[in-house]
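We were asked to recover a plausible sequence for a given structure. The inputs and outputs are reproduced exactly as logged, with field labels preserved.

PROBLEM: sequence recovery
POSITIONS: 294
GIVEN STRUCTURE:
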């Protein structure tokens, strides 16, 4: 499995675009570093337009690729930054699976890894009428600068280890790992088993993780699966139930974990959607990426 590696490319500090769609927009900043934008003409677009202002040397993106990227948003009327972020730092890295149908598909289509892209996006594609960021008007559109950092492998490598007796067995299937339940009583304590050990850095308690996962009840009934959605998920560890967070912390990127969470470290005596109260939960996690939030 991979650990995220960045190839930093530099280009002229100022890129002044001459095409009609981008005329009057000036971008300052190196690839992978904080970006500044100045807008001389109000942005008026009905659909996403984009220009690759610095073409990378990596492979061309294709549908299904899990892309690590950084993005900065600016008001297309005033030029002000409209979404806070940490562009140029690990905190600002996000992931997206190409082909999921969001506006990002139009920005990323046939772009090479390590490219910097300038796009103009209708405000309606970014926020609803009741969720516009402060300072953004009803008719304001957005200027977007996006750096394509890398493609993250979604299939793990390495020898597979079996589950110990008394815990569910995990087998591969066409749609991700399949959990085979056992008839033994559920364990009362948190159980964490490394089924595949990765070679990346250990996950820290404050990290944001990108994972594939499946969750099931002790009976084996699946209640959630990122594999079924065909797209990994991003989580801040601080927002997860205690048993899952405790299980993920310290595991290496590139690992597959079996985590069995007792009710006290899960949802306790409260039902949660398809999860009954006092449920023991089974999770299988593939840790694809972890980025620091410090």
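RECOVERED SEQUENCE:
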């Amino acid at each position: 499995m991979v650990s995220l590696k960045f190839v930093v490319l530099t280009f002229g500090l100022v890129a002044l675009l001459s095409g009609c769609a981008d005329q009057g927009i000036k971008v300052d900043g190196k690839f992978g570093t904080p970006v500044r934008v100045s807008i001389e003409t109000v942005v008026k677009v009905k659909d996403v337009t984009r220009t690759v202002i610095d073409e990378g040397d990596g492979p061309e993106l294709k549908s299904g690729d899990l892309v690590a990227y950084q993005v900065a948003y600016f008001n297309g009327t005033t030029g002000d930054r409209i979404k806070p972020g940490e562009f140029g730092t690990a905190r600002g890295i996000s992931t997206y699976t190409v082909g999921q149908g969001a506006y990002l598909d139009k920005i990323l289509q046939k772009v090479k890894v390590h490219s910097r892209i300038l796009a103009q996006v209708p405000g309606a594609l970014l926020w609803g009428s009741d969720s516009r960021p402060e300072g953004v008007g009803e008719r304001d559109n957005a200027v977007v600068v996006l750096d394509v950092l890398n493609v993250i492998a979604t299939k793990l490598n390495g020898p597979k280890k079996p589950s110990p007796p008394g815990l569910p067995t995990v087998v591969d299937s066409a749609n991700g790992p399949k959990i085979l339940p056992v008839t033994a009583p559920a364990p009362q304590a948190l159980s964490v088993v490394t089924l595949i050990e990765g070679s990346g850095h250990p996950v820290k308690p404050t990290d944001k993780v990108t994972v594939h996962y499946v969750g099931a009840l002790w009976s084996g009934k699946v209640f959630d699966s990122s594999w079924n959605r065909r797209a990994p998920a991003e989580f801040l560890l601080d927002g997860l139930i205690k048993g899952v967070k405790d299980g993920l912390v310290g595991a290496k990127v590139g690992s597959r974990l079996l985590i069995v969470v007792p009710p006290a470290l899960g949802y306790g005596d409260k039902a949660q959607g398809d999860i009954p109260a006092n449920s023991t939960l089974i999770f299988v996690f593939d840790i694809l990426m972890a980025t620091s939030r410090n």
